[in-house]
Structures are given as structure tokens and as C-alpha cells.
Specification:
By secondary structure, this protein is mainly α. It has a single domain (2-227), classed as MetI-like fold, CATH 1.10.3720. The chain contains eight helices and no strands.
Length: 234
């Protein structure tokens, strides 16, 4: 049975390793997209524009209230039509088709962004307002306050929550297997069906996810300690 997981001509080792790499690629891309969407959503929710605030509220409410698999299905079956409609607005009349990787990143990124929005919003509100007022009193402009005070401290407060969002994003990549993208779960499913050894292949997938989440936890813990250097603790 272990020969099936080897890297030999009869083994599935290279396919599983490639699936793990694809899982990491989707997770990193989706998490980066989620952080961008979360930053924009948090800015909209904290801003004074009622329209943008309403759009951000609808986005987080809908995406967090709908099952993740349904979001992937909606983008998988409707994403090409939406992209084509946007392309026609800019004068492109040809057919636009998104590949499975793009759809997976968009779907998981939308999900990640909805949770990142609340994490970043809470982190911004945790920054003491007195520091902002003191910076203004010292003559700092808006962008200087953003760069030297707001962003560094927001990152410090948001990092634990973003670590949890990353773990969710990493595990949500398993749902992208429905788009036929060759990530870990898809490869495990193909291997289980081809060899009639489902327990072995799904156990291998579980081990890979466990390794990835363990390494991620250690990395975020180290990043948190780095951002907390010089901070006095009670």
C-alpha cells in the first residue's frame, strides 16, 4: 500500500506533492486577495460614505451567511458570464473564460475577505484614538499618521485574527476540488478512485493539511512575537 504513495513509476507521490503545491498557491493567492478586500471593506465600514458602508455591510453579511461551497459554485457557473459582462463594458466582444485556478482564488478570496474585513475593522478601532490626536497635534498629515501609527499598530492587533483567517482559507481550498483543480483533495479523490484505497489517500491528504496548518501556526506565532517586541506587557 505504501508503494502507492511513493515517488516511483507506480506511485502517486509526485501527484500528491504537486497537489500540495497547488493548495498552497491557491491559499496564498486567496489570502492576499482577502486581505486587500478586507482592508477596503474595513475602510468602507469605518468611513463616512453611507453608500460604501452599505456595500461593505452587504458583502460581509451575504458572503459570511452563505455556505462556502455555494459561493464556489456561484462563481464556477456564473463567473465567466460576469467577467464577460464587465469586458463588454470596456469594448471587448470576445468570449472570456476563467480557468479553475482563477475561479478558486476568487471564490476563496471573497470568503477570506469577508472575515478579514471584520478582523481589520476591529484592529483599527483598537488603536488608541489619543495617539491619532497627538499625531495631529504634532503636525503629522493623514498619510504620515497612516504609515507611522495606524498601519503598524493595526497589523499588531489584527495578526492573531488574520492567522485564524489564514487557517480557514487554507482549509477552504479543499472545496475548490469541485472545479477539477488538481489540489490535494482532488488528487486524493482521483487516487482513491483509481486504486480503491480511499482510506490511505484521504489519510495522506489529512497529514498534508495537518503539516501545513502546524507550520502556519508556528509562522504566525513568530510573527506575533516579532510585532510585540518592545511592547510592555502587564
Amino acid at each position: 500500500m505504501l508503494d502507492l504513495l511513493s515517488f516511483g513509476p507506480q506511485g502517486w507521490g509526485w501527484q500528491i506533492l504537486g497537489g500540495a503545491g497547488m493548495t498552497v498557491a491557491v491559499a496564498v493567492s486567496a489570502f492576499a486577495l482577502g486581505v486587500v478586500l478586507g482592508s477596503l471593506g474595513a475602510a468602507a465600514k469605518l468611513g463616512e460614505n453611507l453608500l460604501l458602508r452599505g456595500v461593505a455591510e452587504v458583502y460581509t453579511t451575504v458572503v459570511r451567511g452563505v455556505p462556502e461551497l455555494l459561493v464556489i459554485y456561484l462563481l464556477f457557473f456564473g463567473g465567466n458570464g460576469m467577467v464577460g459582462a464587465v469586458a463588454r463594458v470596456f469594448g471587448h466582444d470576445g468570449y472570456v473564460e476563467l480557468n479553475a485556478f482563477s475561479i478558486g482564488v476568487m471564490a476563496v478570496g471573497l470568503i477570506s475577505g469577508s472575515y478579514s474585513t471584520e478582523v481589520i475593522r476591529g484592529a483599527v478601532q483598537s488603536v488608541p484614538h489619543g495617539q491619532i490626536e497627538a499625531a495631529r497635534a504634532c503636525g503629522m498629515g493623514r498619510w504620515l499618521i497612516l504609515r507611522r501609527i495606524l498601519v503598524p499598530q493595526t497589523l499588531r492587533y489584527a495578526l492573531p485574527g488574520l492567522g485564524n483567517v489564514w487557517q480557514l482559507t487554507l482549509k477552504d481550498t479543499s472545496l475548490v476540488s469541485v472545479t477539477a483543480l488538481a489540489e490535494v483533495m482532488r488528487v486524493a479523490h482521483l487516487g482513491a478512485g483509481s486504486t480503491r484505497q480511499p482510506f490511505m489517500f484521504y489519510t495522506a491528504a489529512a497529514v498534508i493539511y495537518l503539516v501545513l496548518t502546524t507550520v502556519s501556526t508556528a509562522a504566525f506565532d513568530r510573527a506575533e512575537r516579532h510585532t510585540m517586541r518592545g511592547v510592555r506587557r502587564a
